[in-house]
Amino acid sequence: MTTEQLTKGTIVDVRTRGEFAGGNVANSLNFPLQELHTTSDKLKALPQPLILCCASGNRSGQAEQYLKSLGIDCVNGGSWMDVNYLQAQLTA
After folding, report:
1. Which residues span the domain enclosing 43?
2. Cα angle at 88 between 3 and 75, to 5 degrees?
3. 25: Cα within 13 Å, side-chain hemisphere
4. Three-class SS of residue 11?
5. Is the dihedral of CA 18, 47, 58, 40 positive or negative?
6. Please, what is the end-to-end C-alpha distance for the chain in angstroms?
C-alpha cells in the first residue's frame, strides 16, 4: 500500500461489526468479509482503490482476492492498526 493509495482510496474494514465497534481506522467503512458477496455493488461505487484491513491481514487478503476477481481495484492494507498508524503519519 502506498501513501497515494491511502489518500485517494477508501479504507474498508472487513472485520465483524463487533470487532469494528471495538476500534477502527478513522473514516473507514465496515463491510464484513462474510457479507462481501451481497455488498459488492456498494463497494464498486466507492472511490478506489479500496484499502482493505482486518485484525491481522488474513481476512483482508481473502477479501482482496475476491474483490479483484470482480474487477475492483483494491489492496490488502494488513491490520487495521497498521493502516491507522500510516494514516496518522500522513496527517501529522
Report:
1. 3-91
2. 40
3. 28
4. strand
5. positive
6. 19
DSSP letter, residue 10:
E
pLDDT higher at 3 or 74: 74
Q: What is the pLDDT of residues 30-63, one digit of tens each?
A: 999 999 999 999 999 999 999 999 999 999 999 9
How many domains would you assign to the chain?
1
Residue 21: all three cell numbers together: 465497534
Q: Can you read off the three cell numbers belonging to residue 92?
A: 501529522
Cβ contacts of 35-41, under 8 Å, gap ≥ 24: 36/63, 36/66, 36/67, 37/66, 40/67, 40/70, 40/72
